[in-house]
Amino acid sequence: MLSKVTSLSKAPALFILVGICSAILLYDTGLPFIVSPLTGAVLSFGMILLSSRGTVKGFWAFSFLVLLLSVCMGYYSLARIEHNHVDNTYVRMKGHVLSERAWGGKRAIILSLDGSRYIAKVSPNKGYREGDTLFVTGYIIPMKSSLKNPGGFREDMYWKAKGVKGEYLPESMKLLSSSGKDIHSWRSYLRQKILLSLPEKTRGYMLASWLGAKDPDLVQIHSTSGTVHLLAVSGFHVAILASGLFFIFRNFSACNILISLFLWLYVALTGFAPSASRASMMLQLVLISRFFGRPVTPINSVSVAGVIMLCWNPFCFWDLGWRLSMVASLTISAFVELELHKRVKVFLISPMVWLSTAALIISAFGQVPLSGTVVNLFTIPLFGILLPLASLISIWVLFGFPFGDLFSIACEIPFLAWEKVAHFFCFLFPYSLGSNWFVIIISVLIFFAVIFRSISYNFYRSLSASGVVIIFLAFLYKYILV
Predict the structure, then answer these.
(1) Which CATH superfamily is 89-181 part of?
(2) Helix (H, G, I), strand (E, B) or coil at 403
(3) In the chain, where the domains are located
(4) Stated pTM of the model
């Protein structure tokens, strides 16, 4: 008989993660600060009971420890959210441009002022770049709170997920220096080199893969085909890099240290994208486990990475990239644990990720294209080859080696061919799943069912447990929080 401690011993961090996420979600929806983490712990405990059978010695003590950690970390995360505010202040000081991007008809730049980050929206004519040092005068004000609409875009949460504390209203901004040796200056330099040296498609994919910058035309193409996740720096890109690093450093005695060094350098180059940070943290746990000779379960590693990120910056909970990354990674990790033939797993894993993330995509964009289920089957393995190859060719071009122009033009051909094939499948499957509660519930049910099946080894128990969790969440939302 399986013991009740089975699911806890396999993935204890999963239940802590569920407790913290539930606490943040319930608090954001209107439940009081004091009650939210306790309610989240109730949900976690319910998941522990539903995913287990029988009892063994030490079950209650271990459960209590996991739930205590869930409650404490829930309160800690909520406290950080509550105390993340600024007062109206007039500033006159040096600032550093950490990032910049288009924002409507303006440019949004993140400034580091006195060790904190602030968002400023300036005219597109202002040529400020990452790494620039400015002398600024103006006012720092709290960010305007967005409406608590689960399906709508919340601008304040978007920026706070990137570490922004408040908004800077510029009175004057004077450029002091445009040269630097920090990571932001290197990002700006590399962006300019890519824009000036590489052809259109390769340029767009390298900006996305290396720097986390999205080309609007590529976003449109991949959104239509349901593969827009390839343009967000995620576990897919980290896995490609890690595979290359393992191959290069496999015979080095300091293999793990060298991989870790280059891995976090890459994450810094992407601007510490939440999904890339999560994937790198997970891989770092695997490297540490290898060093100490201790086994590690994928689903627990993903959960630990999620817990660390929420405690570090609880606002990343509202970052769509982080949510998609966590749901996709948990689905993949859980699906790998299932007792299925390898060929079946390879064929089903992409549709399963598509289904489990459908609820988030529909909530954010209103629909999810059905063509994504087919296109992702060949796109993911294809880009697993194309992106490393294009990166090597791009490095060759950027260093000015011979025949760079010829190689870069040849690199465009497979990307253009993929667009034609993807467009064909979109023509064959022009339908999309729109925003309705049935589709969202099915998506959430599939996600929880895969997770429960991975940790409980019983299909019917997994399905019923998933249903109970969904009913509990729906009851809270409908009858208590609204």
Answers:
(1) Nucleic acid-binding proteins (2.40.50.140)
(2) coil
(3) 1-83, 89-181, 236-269+272-310
(4) 0.86
